[in-house]
Specification:
single chain, alpha/beta, Helix Hairpins, Chitinase A, domain 3, five-stranded mixed beta sheet, 3 helices, 7 strands, 39% helix, Tscrpt_elong_fac_GreB, Tscrpt_elong_fac_GreA/B_fam, Transcription elongation factor GreB, transcription regulation
């Protein structure tokens, strides 16, 4: 990995919760189902066995990915940001475009991004453009649909 995997404490907790749920609950139940299905005889036409093995591979792959991401994670608490007048990791930013459409975004780690909920990954084009901006700054963002200018209207950080 060529760059750090920044993540908020809440994002790391979410990754850990998913890992624990898969490893401690879903995987053991699935192994039990596969063992039961294997004991039923012919495995070539046994849907429980075939689906179970496929799902087990998916779970193991996801567990490996989660493990790597948690090991590479660099937890950054946005509440401890030294300069809360500028946009950095964990900031919640209200921006306005040329048409005065307002949008509120929170810059989070790439693993916890959810554009529909307003959480964008730290390495997304708009997040890269907003890094270091202060209220009143205008930043140009190159998007697939073309270039757009956004003005920073407000910056907030979570309380400690």
């Amino acid at each position: 990995m060529d760059r750090p995997n920044y993540i908020t404490p809440a994002g790391l907790s979410a990754l850990r919760a998913e890992y624990d749920a898969l490893f401690a609950t879903e995987r053991p139940q699935l192994v039990e189902t596969i063992a039961w299905a294997a004991g039923n005889g012919d495995r070539s036409e046994n849907g429980d066995y075939i689906y179970g093995r496929k799902r087990l591979r998916e779970i193991d792959r996801r567990l490996g990915w989660l493990s790597k991401r948690m090991k590479a994670a660099k937890v950054v608490d946005p509440a401890r940001a030294p300069d809360k007048a500028r946009v950095f990791f964990g900031a919640t930013v209200t921006i306005a475009d040329e048409d005065d459409n307002h949008r509120t975004l929170t810059l989070v780690g790439d693993d916890e991004a959810d554009a529909g909920a307003g959480r964008i990954g730290w390495n997304a084009p708009i997040a890269r453009a907003l890094r270091g901006a202060a209220v009143g700054d205008v930043r140009r963002v190159v998007l697939p649909a073309g270039e757009r200018d956004y003005e920073v209207m407000a910056i907030t950080y979570p309380d400690r």
